[in-house]
Automatic annotation (TrEMBL):
Organism: Tetrapisispora phaffii (strain ATCC 24235 / CBS 4417 / NBRC 1672 / NRRL Y-8282 / UCD 70-5) (Yeast)
First and last residue of the signal peptide: 1-21
Intracellular or extracellular location(s): Mitochondrion
Keywords associated with the record: Mitochondrion, Signal, Transit peptide
InterPro entries named among the record's database cross-references: Pet117
Protein name: Uncharacterized protein
Domain of life assignment: Eukaryota
């Protein structure tokens, strides 16, 4: 066998070995990437569920705050009505607006 054919055979075998190794490495990377897909999906679903729970908790807290404010306003309104009745009993209201010009 000539020197040129030995070099050609050696280079061809080397390139073939490199190509085979590269293909195996790429397949392994793709397999790992595919394996990470369901893991990422599960994580995304868990985060979405957690976010939904946090949103629901926040909405519940806001609803409780609105109910508390509504109850406070209702009680305050009742108190103001009682005061109005009390003061009308002491000094009845005529509905007439008194200004500085109307006194003259």
């Amino acid at each position: 066998m000539s020197r040129a054919s030995k070099i050609t055979l050696g280079v061809t075998c080397l390139l073939t070995a490199i190509t085979i190794a590269t293909v195996h490495i790429v397949q392994e990377v793709e397999r790992e990437t595919l394996h990470q897909g369901p893991i990422k999906d599960a994580k995304r679903v868990a985060e979405k569920r957690l976010q939904k729970e946090q949103d629901q908790t926040r909405l519940d807290a806001e609803a409780a705050e609105k109910a508390r404010k509504r109850e406070f306003n209702k009680n305050d309104h009742a108190y103001q009505q009682e005061l109005r009745k009390k003061y009308e009993a002491i000094q009845p209201l005529s509905g007439e607006v008194v200004t500085a010009e109307s006194d003259k």
